[in-house]
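User: Okay, second chain of the day. Same drill as before: sequence in, structure tokens out.
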Amino acid sequence: ITLGEGAVLRNFGGMSAVRVTDQAKLVMKSGSVIEDASSITRSKGDAGSVGPAGAVWLQGSDFEMKSGAEIKNVNGRAIYADGGTVTMDGMISDIQSNTHMWNACQGIALHLRGGASATFSGTIQNVKSTDNDSYVVYDVSSSIAFKSGSTIKNCFGTAKYGSLIYSTGLTKEALLDGTITECHVPNNLIYSANSNFPTSIGPNAQITNNSGSRLFYDNSVLDLQNAPAMTISGTITNNTLTDSMFVGSNNGREITICDGAKINQNTLTSSTGSAIFWAGANRRIVMENGSEVCGNTVAKGAVAVVAGEGNCFTMKGGTISGNTVRLCRPSW
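Assistant: Same drill. Structure tokens below.
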């Protein structure tokens, strides 16, 4: 299936605008559009219905969205991939959450499951939710990579729980190597759970001017002895958080702050046990030569760099400088 330049699919009914199964492939060329009119609000349908899937619904198939293609102004969800491969160089914009969708608001821009694989070099912007348990990108038992040049910006959530990006049971390491900026959620911006594979921040990443409870939460690891480390190599600046920046549960994976990483000029406003790095018991944090943790501000009652019972912080090199704990609590 090919949507060529000038092709517009508007106000889809049923489960999706395009459903792609088995060996089929969907290609959206530059200038093609899937959209809704402003009056469209989707409903679940008859009793027993699971609800609409999304503008594009994959079942073990391939979807290629070329630069200049758009899925925009959609009520509910842009892409639902149950298996298959998504290659996205286009733009997903102005998507509004809707609890009547299949799996509700788990992945308003993108829902991955069933071993699906997604590679993003395009843009996700202006995704909005006022519903509980909403996620802009939701990845369960699948894999995802945000390549250099990809952008997530101006995404907002106002209800309880939910995250910008949620991953659980990853089938391989997830990569964030693009830009995340001007996004505001009440809970974690990035949440990773129940996976031996980490979600790592690549050397080209720019995570700036966001707000939420925590920047990154890494939950339990299934096989701690063989779980690879989470690596941080990019730039993380000017974010405002009501809790800690990096949070990990007990007995989780190692976090390595790599050469070139810059964790600078961020603000933590909580005075209750918060830190730039906060972990439960028995976690290891390693800071390598060429990395920086500088100019951050945390509230009274917090610590600047590391907290948590039984943790090990190893500083092989790098710079920790100019971090401030308000009202005279000592900082590293």
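The chain has no helices and 42 strands.

User: Thanks, on to the next one.
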